[in-house]
Design a protein that fits this description.
Chain lengths: 256, 538
């Protein structure tokens, strides 16, 4: 597999000292009908630059919710009953205080999502799926002016993931592993600081899942990509630098 | 500078070309747009033909003082025709009367006394005369059945046509040219309307006292005379003794308006003036009474037998009830032209104290004169349009339903877009653009379909009719009448149509707006979706 690079050079040194992400006192409660269902009970977590952290937990432990909150897809509970509000600091920014527009920008530029079920858009080709994030980030004029460079970047990413001959294929024409590699390429097109992967091998057989983990490891090695991966499988979690175990919405253990 | 993201255009294009449902929505818009545009064009064309037919009967402006009429009209016509905006002017008398037709059938009619030569310059009178020689069959007369095509009748028809123009006919007994009638083609009831909208004279068999049967051609009827009855009014508008006159028929006219063709008879202006006592005459004014003798005082210029002894004789000019005026520019503003005619009349009235004042005289445009008819058709057009527009709103609901279903189907895609950083408005615009695209495609193709149908509507109609004819003959042995616009029933032989650019633009924009309306709520729903719920949607 060739070297994984996005459109900008990978920084070899951290831009600034300190963790990339710091989460503290994260609470999240969902309302189901008239019943409040607490999912997260004050989660604290830190993520260093270039670190690969796995969130390990059983189904319903709140690991996907944690990922969504960190990725700006949802907002944590507001302070109540003397309980202070949650903190999600990304670089020097307070994600919790972001406006809607800032959250959109954060999701677009700073984080990249990889989902268990790939979530590729079936009407688009592999290349268009990968370029979708860039299309959202740039306006029409911006995209058109960078179009050639972006297509080259997408082609290089896909080539690195062994999809050189699949550029014009539709997702339905790909295997599960290929689809997930396309989804990873899509997540990387805007060169995000943080890659969030929600059970990236959960829908794949063991061999294909292992290949996907190899891809993630390659990305981390080549790009120094910071990654937060959610899984329920201790064996998969073991591939990460550090494992944070989540039980019933609380951090139960952390181990390197 | 903000520029819309390219992903919206990409998704719109992909959704539009990869799904059947939006194509069905586009098809619905195509059909609705075409339906409204065709209806409007045909109804608009019908209205246009109707109003043009109405215009052809009275010119552009009518200056009228009904019943008793007004004198010195020759001076008014001269003043009008001296004006560069006036093409021509013609005197006319309109009065109600009775006509006794064949077998003593008597009917109430509108009698118009016209001066054939000037009337033909103001109106398209010459074109409306029905009996004239034809070189080629009319468009709908595919079989060439028109009796006017008969080579052997060309001389007769030429003579009849000239008689119609002059409203006279030569008396076969005396050889003298005398006044004659020109009837609306439906007045006499002796013409049969053909399938293609023409006429031929009815033929009837008359049984004699000896039991023999004789065929009689009822052409106009040849050699026959009809009795016309009018009631003259004195100068104060009081009815005088009814006057009858027996007159031959010189020709018949077809105006295109059934009511006119059914109830109008034309005759020579001077003949009608005499019947109505509106002709130029001398009046006896007695020294002890400063007024005319209303009943016995009229006499012809050469009628010296009735002259009173030691008379004071006053010249009474001829009168007409209206002067018709045609403007030089056929596309000119008819309202402004009416005001010009009113001003000319005011100058005329200032020089003639015995004519109605400029404030009293009726000066109306052809639209004013036909407002009842035009108004009715306009209302009918409006009503049909409203009905079809409501029907077309099904397109809005169809787009709404399809989009609602598609957004449910695409919930995960919406979640992905939000996860990749798309804003709520960005997601909403994907669907609004999609609705707009369906509207553009549907409206454009609908407009093209309407244009293709409207410009070929008579050929399509003919094709349908011929298909019915062929199918009927082959399946049942008799042709099926699939004529929707039957020339036998409708006055206009062709289906009228007129696509006006502003109407087309209005309908096409309406199609676009309808699609946008249909997409509005689903787009709002997509925008309000919570990204996490959208991603977890099963």
């Amino acid at each position: 597999m060739s070297t994984v690079t996005a459109q900008t050079p990978v920084p070899t040194e951290p831009a600034s000292s300190g963790p990339l992400l710091r989460v503290a006192g994260l609470h999240k409660t969902y309302r189901l009908g008239r019943v409040d269902v607490p999912v997260l009970h004050g989660v604290d977590i830190e993520l260093g630059r270039g670190e690969w952290v796995a969130i390990l937990g059983a189904s319903g432990s709140g690991k996907s919710t944690l990922l969504h909150l960190i990725g700006g897809l949802d907002r944590p509970d507001k302070p109540s009953g003397g309980r202070p509000g949650a903190t999600i600091r990304f670089e020097s920014q307070d994600v919790v205080a972001f406006s809607h527009a800032e959250l959109n920008r954060y999701r677009c530029r700073d984080v990249g999502f990889v989902f268990q079920f790939y979530h590729l858009l079936p009407e688009l080709t592999v290349t268009d799926n990968v370029l979708l994030g860039a299309m959202i980030r740039l306006g029409r004029f911006g995209y058109m002016s960078e179009r050639a460079a972006l297509h080259e970047t997408a082609a290089r990413l896909l080539d690195a993931f062994g999809l050189k001959n699949r550029l014009r294929h539709k997702p339905a024409q790909l295997s599960g592993g290929e689809r997930q590699r396309v989804a990873i390429a899509r997540a990387l097109i805007n060169d995000p600081s943080l890659l969030l992967a929600d059970e990236p091998t959960g829908n794949l057989d063991r061999k294909t899942g292992a290949a996907i983990l190899d891809v993630l490891a390659e990305i981390r090695r080549e790009r120094g990509q910071t990654m937060l991966m959610v899984t329920h499988d201790p064996e998969i979690a073991a591939r990460a630098d550090r494992i944070v175990e989540l039980v019933d919405g609380r951090v139960a253990a952390q181990k390197d | 500078m903000y520029s819309p993201p390219v992903y919206q255009a990409l998704l719109t294009r992909r959704y539009l070309t990869s799904k059947v449902m939006p194509l069905l929505a586009s098809l619905a818009v195509v059909l609705c747009t075409a339906m409204v545009l065709i209806t409007w064009s045909v109804m608009g064309g019908f209205l246009l033909n109707l109003t043009q037919a109405g215009r052809s009967l009275i010119g552009d402006v009518r200056i009228a003082w009904p019943n008793v009429g007004f004198p010195h009209y020759e001076d008014l016509i001269q003043r009008l025709e001296e004006h560069p905006e006036v093409e021509a002017a013609s005197p006319i008398i309109e009065t109600f009367g009775m006509i006794t037709l064949l077998e003593n059938r008597t009917e109430g009619i509108l009698i118009r006394g016209i001066d054939g030569e000037s009337f033909a310059r103001v109106t398209n009178y010459a074109d409306t005369l029905w009996w004239k020689p034809l070189d080629e069959p009319m468009q709908k007369d595919k079989a060439g059945d028109d009796v006017r095509l008969e080579p052997g009748d060309r001389d007769l028809l030429r003579r009849v046509y000239d008689d119609g123009l002059s409203l006279t006919e030569i008396d076969p007994d005396t050889g003298v040219r005398e006044s004659a009638l020109v009837l609306g083609i439906e007045v006499g009831g002796w013409n049969v309307r053909t399938d293609w909208g023409g006429y031929y004279p009815r033929v009837q068999f008359i049984t004699g006292s000896d039991g023999s049967s004789e065929m009689q051609n009822l052409f106009m009827p040849a050699g026959g005379e009809l009795t016309v009855l009018v009631v003259p009014l004195d100068s104060r508008g009081r009815p005088m003794e009814a006057v009858t006159s027996r007159l031959p028929v010189a020709n018949e006219f077809e105006s295109g308006l059934y009511d006119v063709d059914r109830q109008t008879v034309l005759m020579d202006l001077k003949a009608l003036q005499r019947m109505l006592r509106m002709h130029p005459a001398k009046r006896v004014v007695r020294s002890d009474r400063d007024e005319a003798d209303p009943l016995g005082g009229f006499f012809e210029e050469d009628d010296t037998a009735n002259a009173a002894p030691e008379p004071e004789i006053v010249e009474d000019p001829g009168r007409v009830t209206a002067v018709l005026v045609k403007q030089a520019d056929p596309d000119g503003d008819v309202e402004a032209f009416r005001e010009r005619c009113r001003a000319i009349y005011a100058e005329f009235a200032a020089d003639h104290p015995d004519v109605p004042g400029a404030g009293s005289i009726g000066v109306e445009t052809w639209e004013d004169a036909n407002r009842m008819m035009i108004g009715a058709v306009k209302k009918e057009t409006g009503l049909v349009l409203i009905i079809f527009t409501f029907i077309s709103f099904t397109a809005v609901f169809l787009v709404f339903a399809i989009f609602w279903a598609m957004i449910s189907e695409k919930t995960k895609d919406i979640g992905v877009l939000r996860a990749l950083g798309a804003s709520r408005m960005g997601v909403a615009w994907v669907w609004l653009r999609y609705g707009l695209a369906i509207g553009v495609v549907g409206s454009l193709f609908g407009g093209l379909l309407a244009w293709a149908i409207v410009t070929n509507i008579n050929e399509i109609h003919e094709g349908i009719a011929l298909s019915g004819d062929w199918l009927g003959r082959n399946l049942t042995g008799t042709p099926w009448n699939w004529y929707i616009w039957d020339p036998k029933v409708y006055v206009f032989k062709e289906i009228p149509h007129s696509i006006e650019p502003w109407k087309a633009a209005f309908v096409l924009i309406g199609g676009l707006v309808s699609c946008l309306l249909g997409a509005l709520l689903p787009a709002a729903r997509a925008a309000r979706m919570h990204p996490v719920q959208a991603l977890r949607f099963e």
